[in-house]
Design a protein that fits this description.
Bound molecules: uridine 5'-triphosphate, magnesium ion
Shape: globular
Number of strands: 15
Strand content: 5-15%
Oligomer: single chain
Helix content: 25-40%
Structural class: alpha/beta
CATH architecture of the largest domain: 2-Layer Sandwich
Strand order of the largest sheet: 6-8-12-10-9-11
Distance between the termini: 40 Å
CATH superfamily of the largest domain: Beta Polymerase, domain 2
Length: 523
């Protein structure tokens, strides 16, 4: 379809620049377009570039990792891939961008905003690396199997420091680039020893490759080393590791001159209830939670839940469900086969646990699913839940056999804990500093989530993680299936209907993905 009339034609409304954004103002930064010149010609490409930019789209001159849509006209998918490979010298399995036909571009210009991708927009390609014997690595974390057996820890540790620094600097693009690079290396079944081992590996941008190259040559990454030493990184990391403190608050305190927890404690800074609890139990909360502790907490919760609903199901989710031996908190999902029975349960359970002297802090958030109209993918869910701190008797932990050997998993140890849910009024049980020293218990962060049975499979999938696995599942659903996935449901935008699922396997099947068990979702 020609947008720019080579001969005089009736004016296409999509070409109209009326009411467009001032040149240079990017309205849709999440979408990056690369226009393929082949068969389009350079003048038409320039025209379309200018048109899109005037409409607030980001158009890249070169193919890069920030490109999300490769737009071409009258080319097959295979031709576009071949061309990109020739132009960039990079193997095309690296590109996560969608290869789309000009129809998507024309329609988006007409609509004045980037349209959701539909199958008819996508160029068909076989992304198999037929010329080599290497199995191509899929670009989305939800298409790969990532166990805890990380064969490239030296590389991923460095990339994760850079990702963490980007997150602490609120730079989401960089955070994602380094996280994706680290994640793909975790999925490799081999130890990378030379750059050539990465020929078929997607999601590695220039910066990540530079880091990997330096480590392979010198055994260390100077940028990561400098960060670890830097006062800003150390301080922000510590502040953001307080329960209830996000990166914006950590940065604000740093800019106000605060450097240590003691300075924070003695400052006039107004803390939320959550942050007060976070500071009060800080020393305990930064200690990794063991699998044995998590199992015990699940049992305690189950016993209490069963007082009210004897047939309720209480499941350990999060990192422990993925097979981790250590975590920063305990994530527990509760449901009951008779939908509706679970209503109000969270209040009963917390009040009973409080009466048993098990709760140090709690913040109950009631179910808000019915007030929530949007079918859009969202970061957080609307389940009834309680963000809490448990008082776990050390004696009880010593008395139970750990379900597995407590092998140290360094990546899980002392991870910064960050609650993304902002501040809420909560209740805290106060202890004195002297009592804290002699105490025979440990404070442990616990998230209790109650899901109605009809949404349970989605809740289980959403709360099992990892964070990147979940993000990529949602991205995959949106870009390739035109569906919206969240922890409550999957909505098929083409059929305009919700797709019910009783198991995680059914959700993967709806998405046309191979089933990945929890132990292989450690992306
Ligand atoms: P966690 O932050 O607890 O991560 O969230 P984790 O994988 O268990 O890691 P550690 O060991 O505790 O550090 C568990 C999963 O729950 C989802 C995320 O997908 C995450 O992977 N989650 C978390 C939500 O859906 N909503 C939230 O509010 C928090
Ligand atoms: Mg967790």
């Amino acid at each position: 379809m020609a947008l720019v009339p080579r001969k005089k034609k009736r004016k296409d409304p999509a070409l109209s620049l009326d009411g467009d954004a001032p040149v240079g103002v990017v309205k849709f930064s999440e979408v990056g377009i690369f226009l393929v010149e082949r068969k389009m010609g350079s003048s038409r490409r320039s025209f379309l570039t200018e048109l899109a930019r005037k409409k607030g789209f980001r158009v890249e001159e070169q193919m890069s990792e920030s490109v999300t849509h490769v737009v071409s006209e009258n080319n097959t998918g295979h031709e576009v891939l071949e061309l990109l490979e020739k132009q960039t010298g990079i193997c095309t399995t690296e590109f996560t961008a969608a290869l789309v036909d000009i129809t998507w571009f024309t329609e988006s210009m007409g609509a004045g905003k980037p349209l959701e991708l539909e199958n008819r927009h996508l160029l068909q390609v076989k992304r198999a690396a037929a010329r080599t014997n290497v199995v191509p690595i899929a670009p989305y974390a939800c298409q790969r199997r990532t166990t805890l057996d990380n064969k490239n820890r030296l590389l991923t540790d460095a990339l994760e420091i850079l990702a963490e620094n980007a997150e602490l600097s609120a730079n989401e693009g960089r955070y994602l680039a380094f996280t994706r690079a680290s994640s793909v290396l975790k999925s490799l079944p081999y130890n990378v020893t030379k750059m050539d081992d990465l020929r078929e590996v997607p999601n590695l941008g220039d910066h990540s490759r530079k880091v990997i190259k330096e480590i392979l040559e010198d055994g260390t990454c100077s940028e990561a080393q400098n960060l670890i030493q830097s006062e800003r990184f150390q301080t922000l990391k510590q502040f953001a590791s307080i329960f209830g403190v996000g990166v914006k608050t950590a940065d604000k305190w740093f800019r106000e001159g605060l450097r240590t927890l003691d300075e924070l404690r003695s400052s006039k800074v107004k803390l939320t209830k959550e942050q007060e609890a976070g500071l009060l139990y800080y020393e305990d909360l930064i200690k990794p939670v063991t699998k044995a502790e998590a199992d015990l907490i699940r049992q305690i919760v189950e016993a209490t839940v069963h007082r009210f609903l004897s047939a309720a199901v209480v499941t350990l989710t999060g990192g422990f469900r993925r097979g981790k031996e250590y975590g920063h908190d305990v994530d527990i999902l509760i449901t009951h086969q008779e939908e509706g029975k679970e209503e109000g349960l969270i209040f009963q359970v917390i009040s009973s646990l409080t009466a048993q002297d098990i709760i140090l802090y709690d913040d109950i958030i009631d179910n808000s699913y019915h007030e929530w109209k949007s079918k859009e993918t969202e970061k957080f869910d609307h389940f009834a839940k309680c963000l809490s701190i448990f008082k776990l008797q050390k004696e009880m932990v010593n008395n139970i056999e750990p379900s597995r050997s407590c092998r140290k998993d360094s990546s899980a140890e002392n991870e910064p804990r960050r609650s993304g849910l902002g501040s809420h009024a909560g209740t805290i049980q106060l202890i004195t500093a002297a009592a804290a020293k002699e105490k025979n218990w440990k404070a442990v962060r616990v998230d209790l989530v109650v899901a109605p049975y009809g949404q349970y499979a989605y809740a289980l999938l959403g709360w099992t993680g990892s964070r990147l696995f979940e993000r990529d599942l949602r991205r995959y659903a949106k870009h390739f299936k035109h569906m919206s996935l969240n922890s409550h449901s999957l909505f098929d935008n083409k059929q305009s209907k919700f797709l019910p699922a009783a198991t995680e396997e059914e959700i993967f099947a709806h998405l046309g993905l191979d089933y990945i068990p929890p132990q292989e979702r450690n992306a």
